[in-house]
Amino acid sequence: MTHTPTSRRYLMCRPTYFAVDYAINPWMDPTAPVDTDLAIRQWSALRQVYLDLGHTVDEIEPLPGLPDMVFAANGATVVDGTALAVQFLNPERADEAPAYAAWFERAGFEVQQPKAVNEGEGDILLAGELLLAGTGFRTAHTAHAQVQEIFGRPVVTLQLVDPRFYHLDTALCVLDRQTVAYLPEAFSPGSRAVLRRLFPDAVIARPADAEVLGLNAVSDGRHVVLPSQATGLAAALRERGYEPIGVDLSELRKAGGGPKCCTLEVRGAESRREEGKARR
Ligand code: ARG
C-alpha cells in the first residue's frame, strides 16, 4: 500500500533556554547534566528534516526561564484555523500558555481560551474526523467537552495509566487519517478496547520502542519522523509501507520529550477543504 504525504505547517521553538531544572514527569532528573548546545543541534536537525520533506516551519521566540518551551506541541491545539489555547497543570510551565496564544493571535488565528487544564497537542490528536484526547496525568477530562464543542468533531477520551507516558503523544501516534500506532499497555482496559474498535489495523508498538519515546513521532501520511533509537517501531512502519526517518533527540528526552513534543501542527482554515478533497 502506498501512503501519500501531504505538506504540513509546523510551529517549533528553538531550545535556547532548554534545561531540566525541575521534575514534572518521571523522565526528568534535575541532578543529571544537560547539554543545551547539543539539544539545539539535535532540534535544528529535526527542523531540517521537516524542511527537506517540503513542510513549512514557523518559529516562536523562546523565552528565558521557560526551559520546556521547546515542547511546542503543548502550546495549543489548532484545527481549521482555530487555536484552542492551553492551561498547564504545572505552574513551572504556566507562562508558556500566553506566549503561544499571542503567537496565534498575531498570526491571524481565532484563539479560544481553555476552561480547564489542557496541554494542547500533547494530549489532543486529530485522527481523520476524530479528535483523540488523553487524560489521566495532565489534560483534565472536563477539557475534552470543550475540545469537542470548539472543533465540532467527535472527541474520544482515552485514559492513560502509566506515568512514563503522561501525554497521549508519548503513547500513540497518528500515522494518517485512518491509522495510528500505539502502546496498549499505556491505556486503561476500556480505552484499549476503544482503540481496538476504532483502529483494528493499528500498528501495535512494543514497550522497548515506547521507552525511547518512539511513539512521539510526526507523520505526514507517509514519512514518520521518530527517535532513531525506536528501531523495532521503524521496522514495523516500513513493513506497512511508511517511510520512517530516525532523528536523535537524546538531550530533549531528558525532559521527557521527543520529535512530536517539539512540533505543533498548525492547521489553517484550508485543512477543511483539503480533507474534503482527500475524501472524494
Ligand atoms: N518536560 C515537559 C513536561 O513534562 C515535556 C513535555 C513533552 N511534551 C509532549 N507533547 N509530550 O511537560
UniProtKB/TrEMBL annotation:
Does the keyword Hydrolase feature in the UniProt annotation?
Answer: yes
Single annotated GO MF:
amino acid binding
Q: Which Gene3D superfamilies match?
A: L-arginine/glycine Amidinotransferase, Chain A (3.75.10.10)
Residues at the catalytic site: 167 (proton donor), 261 (nucleophile)
Task: Establish whether keyword Hydrolase is in the entry.
Answer: yes
Top-rank lineage group of the source organism: Bacteria
Membrane-crossing residues? none
GO BP, one annotated term:
arginine metabolic process
Which family does the entry's similarity section mention?
Answer: Belongs to the DDAH family.
**Name the record gives this protein:** N-Dimethylarginine dimethylaminohydrolase
Record organism: Micromonospora pattaloongensis
